[in-house]
Structures are given as C-alpha cells and as structure tokens.
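Sequence in, structure out. Go.
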Amino acid sequence: MSIIDMHIHTKYSWCSYTEIHELLSNLSLLNIDGIVITDHDEINGAKIAQKYAQEKYDVKVFLGIEVSTLEGHLLAYGIEEKLPLGLRAIDAINEIRNKGGVVVAPHPFRNALTSLGDMVYTLGNTLDGIEINAMDSRTAKDQARSAAQQLDLAMIGGSDAHCLKSVGRSATKFEIYVETIDDIVDAIRKKQCQPYVSF
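Output:
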C-alpha cells in the first residue's frame, strides 16, 4: 500500500510560491509516501524536483501535469511532455491517452472557471478518474464522488497544494506499493485506489 498526494503545485505554476527544496525537505515530516507535482501546463518543476529527490532527499516525486483546456482543467499522469494550449477537453484527453497516460478531472464541481462541472458526464468514460479534492466544499466533494460512482471511474485524492501547509491534506491510497508513475497509471486504470481525505 502507498499513500500519494496526487496534486501539488510549485513555483513553476503561476499561482504558487512553493520552492522545490523547501517542499522536498518537508515531505519526510508528513504521513504520506510521495507526491505528484502537477504544475499548470508545465513539467520543469517536476523534473527538477525528481532530480533533487533522487540526489539529496529520500522522498518519492512523480511527474504529472494540470492541463488547461477550453472547458476546464484536467490532470494527466503518465506523460512527460506539455500539451499545446487552447485544446478542447476531448482533444486533450485523446492526446494524453494516445501517449499512454490517464486523465483525471480535478476539483470538477468547485465553483471556478477551471472546473469541468457537469461536463464530466458528457466526457464520461473518456476520463479515467475523478479527484476528491481537499480544497473543495463538502457539497463539491459529494458531487464528485457521485459522478465517479455513476460513471464507474476511479477516485483519487489530491490536496491541490499551492503552499506547504496544504501538502498531504488529501491524498490517494493505492492498494499496491507505488514505485513508478506506471504503477500509478495502472492502478488508476484498474481502480485500485481510493481518496484518502477528510470529509
């Protein structure tokens, strides 16, 4: 079993000030086994963090991306390149899946322009999962859980941390021991994961 915070931002996202070294040095204090850095439309922060995690810190860091689409944001796991900006959600999903990745709808019912809302029902099983996000209201979490159940999608937990104090507030419990991003991708596809979050 592994517990991974699947949604972390660093200073490489326009909306976060979290420094890589500060983030990595604090991970050992948390009750989680690793993190996925999912900066907005950017992978450099995750790559730098992976390098330092291997060289200096005894922590697991995986690469993900929060992809901006015309209809809202998507979380991509299992790809290592940025997508073009300005794609429709379905086109971004197809590109991620064609590259071997999985796609999760983050904070889908948060009252924000970046959330997909009811479009998750339109996208249906082109998605692989739905995030239950620590930053959301109880109502938004309940709506996300209901959508995942109705669509038979995996559920993951993520903190959507933009600062250090939020890291690990919500995470995903995997039924397997996670060593690689491929383990995460495979577990999401098989629904061998569940949100580890306080409601």
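Check: The helical segments are 20-27, 44-55, 89-98, 119-123, 138-151, 181-189. The longest helix spans residues 138-151.
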